[in-house]
Amino acid sequence: MSCSMARTCVAWVTPCGTTRKTSAGKPMTQLGEMVAIGIIQDPDEPPCPFTHESPPERDPGKNELIGSGSILAKSMKGSTSTDLLGSAKPDAVENPRYIAKHPLYSPGSLRSANAATQENWPVSIRLSDDDIRKLPVRCAAHHLIPAQESLKDSRLVPFMVHKDTPEDVKGGSVKGVLWRDVGYNVNGSENGVFLPGSYAVGGGRGGLRVWSTADEPDHEQEDLPENADNCEAAFLTGNPDAIDEHTPKWQYVKQAMRLTPGQFHDRHADYSREVQLKLDGIAKTLAKQYKDRERSAECPCEECRKSRDKWKDAGYPPPAALVARLNTVSSRFALYLNGSAWAMNLYTSKWCKAYMQGRQAGKAWAKT
Fold first, then answer.
1. Rounded to two decimals, what is the model's pTM?
2. How many whole angstroms separate alpha carbon 274 and alpha carbon 143?
3. Residue 298, class by beta-carbon neighbours within 10 Å (0-12 exposed, 13-18 middle, 19+ buried)?
């Protein structure tokens, strides 16, 4: 099965459901619209995978490979690109809480919310027929290619970095093989998505901590919104291993995902591993292409033949359009995280995994 730049392949899918609109006029994906095993195709390659510029005499270039959720959020709002060398200016992407008419529009502080505001909070938790609690939802910016959990330890980083100028990453540095940095900013807007989480009810700054997780700690520096400290959220009980339609936490997760729309986020180790595998695959291809051109008497590219005698001392020429290729990878992963499709191997919370398993098993709570 082949894919164009704008499509994402799936190994199998169940019949699609329906799509309705949010109050902001954007499609709202119904839970269960698609369940799939996601296969993220490699971006299309240029005729020659390497640039044909001359090695710089002094400037090794620059990258930004340490991820920060707060910087990412600012980049999305301020149209700061992943491309540090070009002039690209992506469209501004605002946090849903600041988008008028969005279901999650709530620019004010949750801590100071009055009774009338709380009555209009978007999530309703039904504890019993006569006990319904209202709760807020907050979204935070997340990296589609996680910096610390996917990119840092991938085999691709050396193919992004100048050979004599190790690149800083979280907790250390990485040596490169190029004659200049490729100019990638992991905190650029094209690498970001706003996802709902437990930030307003126990997962943000301070608060009740009712949403603690037994998972290993998340190594990504998140953009954590405030908690609604005055919200009595201790009734949010349940865990992904035992869900029914009455589980308070599942009620919250389900509504938060529909309203955003997008996957619920609280931990993404499995997702990060999938991303790293994709980056490692790109690196494996690049390594072979470099070696083929370096050793072959019949190098397929005339320009590479002219410059390859410099490669040993200066480093390899940078991969052509690598930043654009990474942006394509980000956009393809975004199709799953923004709720356009669901994949059993691409999820950012155990609640999302449990939902997909429940959907497969025909559980009533996963059909609603």
1. 0.86
2. 14
3. exposed
